[in-house]
Design a protein that fits this description.
By secondary structure, the protein is of the alpha/beta class. Helices cover 32% and strands 30% of the residues.
């Protein structure tokens, strides 16, 4: 049986990940008729991320339900190429999420405010009227439907088609600005400290890093990321298998996911008439680690809040919606720009520099270590990075 779709909505949100869920919730709770489209058959799956988020970033977007959090994180273990372990306290708590539970919960909130939700439904095109977007072409159970609306928010991930169809330049030209990731959910993982672990070294990954994030339930997310530029003869999964054998030989895989993340700057244009783009689709993520959950959620909350104001005013022109661009670029966008500079510096760090820093830090009191200590030692052991460090603090 095909579920009917209305012919017209105030807002259509494409993609029901963290960004799309927040956008749909915001529209619906403000009384606007809303359609949320998800191409996958189930909200929240597959999970293509490490699920670790900062408490502050998450709570800025939404008041988290305890069921979304598997445990609270208060420190991180950095592991050098030779296996030296350095524990650093988190400057603020972080959370390990049960992301599928969180996404389903937020979508349910939108549904309580009468948002329409369609899974297994693909947005295949945009409708235009003069110089503005006025709807979405939808493929719903092999049935093509044109659905009109006053505004579209694209939250359809790094592979976003909607942004391109709206006329926004979303092409990534620098291969260092695309991260390719592979991750196992594993059991039988032993971690002396119980902290999330970040593993560095060319013997582990060609660039970037590998991770082990305990879920607090006897399982862990074990994965790695490399830039597209570093991708070579070995696939990310082959590199991940070698990492698991080297560092976690007792681990047993329960699930495997692969995907990509943006590691560059956000799009220069984020809006068009009747159209906004958020989250990974807008290249909004921490460029250093590829983390995008809280970037996605906060960008969607900001965009949808501005869109609600524009809908109430009866003005969804590009000029009116450009408030979103300005507020993002002057707010969280500054943080993203800083992370981009830091990523460029980190990609230049060699293994001997990491090892030298680890050997010094291992003898320090862990409770007094700070992330700035890592940066200082890195620059001290590799002076060529001083120019990159200066850029960070301009």
């Amino acid at each position: 049986m095909k579920l009917p779709l209305e012919q017209f909505y105030d807002a259509i949100v494409v993609g029901a990940g963290p960004a799309g869920a927040i956008a749909a919730k915001t529209f619906a709770e403000n009384g606007f008729s809303t359609l949320l489209l998800e191409k996958d058959r189930e909200i929240g799956l597959p999970v293509r991320c490490g699920e670790l988020v900062g408490k502050r970033g998450l709570t800025l977007a939404i008041n988290p339900d305890p069921s979304w959090i598997t445990h609270t994180v208060n420190g991180v273990t950095f592991v050098s190429p030779k296996g030296v372990r350095v524990n650093v306290p988190c400057p603020e708590p972080a959370y390990m999420l049960n992301r599928p539970v969180m996404e389903k919960s937020i979508v349910q909130m939108a549904a309580k405010y009468n948002a329409d939700i369609r899974v297994g439904t693909v947005a295949v095109g945009l409708l235009r009227k003069k110089d503005a977007i006025c709807g979405v072409k939808v493929l719903h159970h092999d049935m093509a439907i044109d659905v009109g609306c006053r505004i579209v928010i694209a939250a359809d991930g790094i592979e976003s088609r909607m942004a391109k169809l709206a006329g926004l330049n979303s092409t990534i030209t620098d291969l260092n600005d695309i991260g390719i990731c592979a991750q196992y959910r594993v059991t039988n993982v032993e971690s002396p400290e119980g902290f999330p672990e970040l593993h560095f070294g060319k013997n582990i990954v060609p660039d970037c890093y590998a991770w082990m994030f305990p879920k607090g339930d006897g399982t862990a997310n074990l994965g790695l990321g490399i830039t597209a530029k570093a991708a070579g003869k070995e696939s990310p999964v082959q590199i991940l298998n070698r990492f698991m054998t080297l560092r976690f030989p007792k681990a047993k895989p329960l699930a495997l996911t692969v995907g990509s993340v943006p590691l560059g700057l956000y799009l220069k244009k984020l809006v068009a008439g009747g159209f906004m783009v958020v989250g990974d689709a807008a290249r909004m993520a921490n460029c250093l680690d590829g983390g995008g959950i809280t970037f996605a959620m906060n960008s969607a909350k900001l965009a949808a809040s501005i869109a609600c104001e524009a809908l109430s005013e009866g003005d969804v022109s590009e000029k009116r919606l450009s408030v979103f661009e300005k507020r993002w670029k002057n707010g969280v966008g500054k943080q993203q720009e800083r992370s981009y500079l830091l990523k460029r510096a980190v990609l230049k760090v060699n293994d001997s520099t990491i090892e030298a820093a680890a050997e010094v830090l291992i003898n320090k009191d862990p409770s007094k270590l700070k992330y700035i200590d890592l940066l200082k030692l890195t620059v001290k052991n590799q002076p060529a990075l001083i120019l990159e460090a200066i850029k960070l603090f301009k």
